[in-house]
Amino acid sequence: MFISPEKKCLANINSSSVLLFSSLFRYKNMLLLASVLVSFSLLAQQQTIAVETKDNALVLQTDKENRLGIIYFGKRLLNSGEYTGITQQYRRDNDNKGIDNNVYTPAGTWNLLEPAIQVTHADGNKSLELLYVSSSVTKTDDNTKLTRVSLKDPVYPFEVTLFFRTWYNENVIEQWSEIKHAEKKAVVMEKYASANLYFTNTKYYLTHFHGGWATEMRPEETELTAGIKTLDTKLGARADLFQPPTFALSFNKPATEDEGAVMLGTLAWSGNYKIDFEKDVYDHLRVIAGINPYASAYTLQPNQTFTTPGFIYTYSGNGKGEASRNLHNWARKYRLLDGEGKRLTLLNNWEATYFDFDENKIVSLFKGAKNLGVDMFLLDDGWFANKYPRNDDGAGLGDWQENKKKLPSGIGYLVKEATKAGVKFGIWVEPEMVNPKSELYERHIDWVLREPQRPEHYYRNQLVLDLSNPEVQNFVYGVLDTLFTKNPELAFIKWDCNAVIFNAHSKYLENNKMPQSQLYVDYVKGLYKVLQRLRAKYPTVPMMLCSGGGGRVDYGALQYFTEFWPSDNTDALERIFIQWNYSYFYPAIATCNHVTDWSKYPLKYRTDVAMMGKLGFDIVVDQLSEKDLQFAQQAVANYKTFSDVVWHGNLYRLMSPYEDDFASLMYVNDTKSKAIVFNYLSNFRYALNASVQPVKLKGLNAKKRYSVTEINLYPGTKSAIKADQTFSGDYLMAVGVNPGVDLRHTSVILEVDEVN
Ligand code: GLA
């Protein structure tokens, strides 16, 4: 951070003058206010705060009235002293000047645009002004810094602290705010964003994603026009079902993989969010991201602090590829649970059996897992509930006891049998939810989110438990804790969440005379409390974040999870697109991909596609043909030799399935000694030109020599790639290599190894 030294002492004067000012106001009339305002502005000296990473800078500066604005976001300047002079190059001149680029726009005074914060004070007044008080920087380690900026209202004892955590090498910033007041009674916060950014370009291209069950992450790119474009969700739980909180924002022209200025952003929050993109009268862009204020006015008691979720963003002047590598590096190192560790390959029984299984059938599948060579067997939905057995999705949710008919010997027996068979054992749970047909519902209707006077509405025949209630938090924690206590060898949890919140009403908030408008926020806070408690006791056990497919994928939840389930759609062709789009924001190590029978593409194609992430299977191994089994076994063995590169390496997207006849992407390890290149046919029309051109590789060392070998061949087939050749990295990146993808070779995996 850069603050010119000669201005430091004046910064202190500023902060004391704000305090003096606020106490004076309580006793004096408006005339005094006017005169203090004059002296205040005379005292205020300009502050420039640069929040810098290796390549970028976000620069804040106070104006004459001591309001803090954003004056720059982009490439870091070589000489940080030059940040102070940036504003002279802009002529934004109207009566609203000075608030449009505000670093945290308050509502109710003279702001005309979308606010970041909007409150009703204890006395009913709705005005807010936030002036700069002070700032500080603390160093967490050589790579991580925290910049704090304190803002205060000169009239009310109301303050906001903005936090910018920077990861220098990864070029990532996480921004959030803390809101606090010392008014006589509670303040109601109508809006309380995490971040408020400002961009001084003229054209902006927003890529955002939408979908539904099995159609997650469909991208749309649009040029932003004047006015507001909003990305949001009001679903409460399974919040990202229609729209995730992730986006790419290109400046001046649409960024490509390797060119153009682009920001990737996402909100670390597993509930309702709202991200507004407001193009103002100067064609500048305001981005305001945070919890969705929809039905969520939040009551803040005096001297309590409200902390908003983090808004995470990275900026690159060199296209989306570099920006997503920034996020991947950051997520693996700093956010994802065990992001630099290993993952378990697995066999899941969901698509293989659905609800139709018993103890013997499950035990018989363990052999299949061992035979394949995977590390673990994952038992999915359908193992629990007795009075209302979980034999379909219409009953049993909430009753987390083993179903005695299906599993008479209990989970403990399954864990033992799995261990005997030589695989680990994991289990599916959906602890936040309840079927009305369940003992839990009968016993604890007060724990269920529902409108007492209206008909219940169901999503997948179920309702959501009230996680704002500490008793419910204990219950949810207990579901997991009991499983682990009874079965200490349990190796993996798949945590599902299949319903949205309908009829959002909490009996707990009602009984405790707390406003219902806190429900959406307190639900997520309650969920995080449970997850924090679980992680305190079980810090390392791998957990998959799942929500009827990809209905809850965000970096708020991913601090507690090792991986996520992108979609229930496991059709291999569809998956290429789905995985491709997630890959902009999430590293491969977090992305679970299973080989299933959803589509009838050849097993090799399905397996190759699932390998661009964490590999799993959801098939009946016994039903594989001899050759398919041989292939699958070899594939698992191969995967184990290179998964390290996929999980921890750098991703380069080479050919887009949206633009080309096949998708091509590669992972390169840090030392550039090994790379894996995945190539998947994505256009199955006859006589296409997929195999004509070579693919130019990326991320290698131009000076090194490499061998290129096709791996993961189907038994009895030969590679079209000539063996015994070596190439320079220079050649592979400038000329490329032709993987020979065509209708007979629908997927090709190449291993690129440094040769000495
Ligand atoms: C959700 C998940 C699936 C499966 C089912 C079980 O749909 O996304 O993978 O676990 O629930 O009911």
Layout of helices and strands, plus pairs?
Elements: H1 8-27, H2 30-43, E1 48-52, E2 56-62, E3 68-75, E4 117-120, E5 131-139, E6 144-152, E7 158-167, E8 172-181, E9 187-199, E10 204-210, E11 218-223, E12 227-232, E13 246-251, E14 261-267, E15 273-279, E16 285-291, E17 298-300, E18 306-307, E19 311-316, H3 319-335, E20 346-348, H4 350-353, H5 359-372, E21 376-379, H6 410-421, E22 424-429, E23 433-434, H7 439-443, E24 463-464, H8 470-486, E25 492-495, H9 507-511, H10 519-537, E26 543-545, E27 563-564, H11 572-582, E28 592-596, H12 603-610, E29 614-618, H13 626-648, E30 650-655, E31 662-668, E32 674-681, E33 705-711, E34 726-728, H14 729-734, E35 747-755
Parallel strand pairs: 20-21, 20-29, 21-22, 22-25, 25-26, 26-27, 28-29
Antiparallel strand pairs: 1-2, 2-3, 4-9, 5-6, 6-7, 7-8, 8-18, 8-19, 9-16, 9-17, 10-11, 10-13, 12-15, 13-14, 14-19, 15-16, 23-24, 30-31, 31-32, 32-35, 33-34, 33-35
Helix pairs in contact: 1-2, 5-6, 8-10, 11-12, 12-13
The site of alpha-D-galactopyranose has 12 residues, from loops.
Overall description:
The chain has 756 residues and is α+β, with helices and mostly antiparallel strands. It contains 14 helices and 35 strands. Strands 5, 6, 7, 8, 10, 11, 13, 14, 18 and 19 form a ten-stranded antiparallel sheet that branches. Helix 1 runs antiparallel to helix 2 (30-43) and helix 5 (359-372) runs parallel beside helix 6. The relative contact order is 0.08.
Strand content: 25-35%
Q: Unreliable runs, pLDDT <50, ≥5 residues?
A: 1-42
Please estimate the helix content: 10-25%
Q: N- to C-terminal separation?
A: 45 Å
Structural class: alpha+beta
| Rg over alpha carbons | 28 Å
- Which compounds are bound in this model? alpha-D-galactopyranose
Mean pLDDT: 94
What's the overall geometry? globular
Count of DSSP-assigned helices: 14
User: Major β-sheet, in short?
Assistant: 10 strands, antiparallel
Please tally the β strands and state the result: 35
